[in-house]
Fold this protein.
Amino acid sequence: MKKILFIATVLFATTAFMTSCSKSSNETDYASKWAGVYNDPSSVPNDGTSTTASLNNVIVSKVDASTLKIQVKALETSYIYTYVILKNVSLNGATKASIDETDALTESTGTYHIKGTVELNGTQLTLNATATNTAATKESDVRTLHFSGYYNN
């Protein structure tokens, strides 16, 4: 009888220990589905030889299950490229994310408050944001960031 009680106790303790050590998370990891490089197909000529695609792309990295880091290199006008690293993009489910942070744009002086949205529709990523110079005094201190491209990994 003592042997059966001892075995039952060991089994119970082992089960309890294994259960308490198992990873349990209610947070869904959407960030992994976003990670990758997205290129704007309009910046790549039909022959595929141009290097301009590397100048008009977005690189998405996972920070954690609900946060992304997004490096944006996007053509703003026919002659101005915007480069910014957004370090804290919050996921709002599987296909939408929001931008609300302050950072620098490489081709501009000053600090910008960047606010906008990012959407993932299949393999297409679309980013729309407004960057406002925190010391804005004129209309040119507000920049529009737009990118639409496709997964390229």
